[in-house]
Design goal:
Layout lengths: L4 E7 L9 H13 L4 E3 L20 E2 L4 H13 L2 E9 L6 E8 L5 E6 L5 E2 L2 E2 L21 E3 L9 H8 L4 E6 L6 H15 L2 E6 L13 E4 L5 E5 L3 E7 H9 L9 H15 L2
Parallel strand pairs: 1-2, 2-4, 3-4, 9-10, 10-11
Antiparallel strand pairs: 1-14, 4-5, 5-6, 7-8, 11-12, 12-13
Length: 278
C-alpha cells in the first residue's frame, strides 16, 4: 500500500449470526481481490438491528474484546485486509453501553475505536434506549497509509466531529450507518457537504435491508473532498481508490484554506453548555 493511496471496499451487508462468518469472509476476500486495503462494514454489522424496538437485551452488548470484536479481528486476519466493524460495547468501569466502531488492521490488531455521540430516539431507531452517547471526541487513526477519522451515522448531522478530525489532519472519514431509503436524498446532501467542509474523502456504508420494524436500506457512498460522488451502490462490494494528493489540493483551495478558530468557538460552545446545565 502506497503511503498516500488507500483503496477502500464498501461492504453493504451485515453478519449478525456466527453462521454468517463464511459470507463475511467471502465478501472481504472479494474486496481484497478487487484491490481493497480496507473494508468498511455498516453500523453494528455483527448485531441484528436492536434499536428497532425500545427493549434492550443483554445479549446485544459485550465487554471490550467480546465475541463480535473477536470475529472482526479474526476475519481481518484470515483474509489479510484491514476492516472497520463495531459492536455495542459495555464500559467495564461504568457498565454503560456504547455503539462503538472498531478499526483493525490486516493482522487483526486494533488501530482505534470511536463511540457514537449523537443518538436518535424515534420509531425504528430507539437508540438512546440501548446505549449512551460517547463522551470523548474523535481522534485521528494512523496505520493505513492515510490518516483516518471515524464517525457513525447520525453524527453526520452534527458536523463538529468532522471539523475536529479535519483539524487533526484526517484525510478519510469513515461513516458506517443505518438509514432509511426514503430519506436518502437528505443524507446524501449532508454527507457531500461534510466531505467538502472537511476537505476529506468520506466513505459511508449502509445496512442493506429493513429489520425489526425499521425501514433501513439505500446506497453506500464514497465522496471526494470536492463533493464528487465516486461510487454509490447497493451492491454487496464496491471498491474506490483514495489519494492523499487530492486531499492536499482540496485543502489548498477554497474552502479548504480558510483559517479555523478553535479557541473562539470552544469558548462560545462552553458558554452555551454552562447556560443549558444551570
Amino acid at each position: 500500500m502506497s503511503q498516500d493511496i488507500l483503496r477502500v471496499g464498501l461492504v453493504t451487508d451485515v453478519f449478525p449470526e456466527p453462521a454468517d462468518h463464511s459470507r463475511l469472509i467471502g465478501l472481504l476476500a472479494q474486496a481484497r481481490d478487487d484491490g481493497a486495503d480496507l473494508a468498511v462494514l455498516p453500523e453494528l454489522p455483527f448485531n441484528g438491528w436492536a434499536p428497532g424496538t425500545k427493549q434492550p437485551h443483554p445479549d446485544d452488548a459485550e465487554a471490550p474484546g467480546g465475541p463480535r470484536q473477536t470475529r472482526l479481528s479474526e476475519a481481518a486476519r484470515e483474509v489479510g485486509i484491514a476492516v472497520l466493524g463495531g459492536a455495542i460495547v459495555v464500559d467495564p468501569t461504568t457498565g454503560t453501553r456504547h455503539n462503538t466502531a472498531v478499526l483493525v488492521d490486516s493482522t487483526g490488531v486494533e488501530l482505534g475505536r470511536y463511540r457514537k455521540i449523537h443518538l436518535p430516539e424515534e420509531e425504528g431507531y430507539w437508540e438512546t434506549s440501548h446505549y449512551a452517547p460517547g463522551t470523548k471526541p474523535p481522534l485521528v487513526i494512523e496505520g493505513l497509509g492515510m490518516r483516518v477519522g471515524l464517525q457513525i451515522c447520525s453524527d453526520v448531522n452534527r458536523p463538529q466531529g468532522f471539523q475536529l478530525l479535519a483539524a487533526q489532519g484526517a484525510e478519510v472519514m469513515l461513516v458506517p450507518r443505518a438509514t432509511p431509503p426514503e430519506t436518502y436524498d437528505r443524507w446524501r446532501v449532508v454527507l457531500r457537504a461534510n466531505a467538502v467542509m472537511s476537505g476529506a474523502y468520506l466513505v459511508s456504508v449502509n445496512r442493506p435491508r429493513p429489520e425489526a420494524g425499521a425501514s433501513i436500506g439505500g446506497p453506500s457512498i464514497a465522496i471526494a473532498p470536492s463533493g464528487e460522488v465516486l461510487t454509490e451502490s447497493t451492491e454487496p462490494v464496491s471498491v474506490v481508490e483514495l489519494r492523499g494528493e487530492v486531499v492536499k489540493e482540496a485543502r489548498g483551495e477554497y474552502p479548504g484554506y480558510l483559517k479555523r478558530f478553535p479557541g473562539l468557538y470552544a469558548a462560545a460552545w462552553d458558554g452555551l453548555d454552562r447556560r443549558t446545565t444551570t
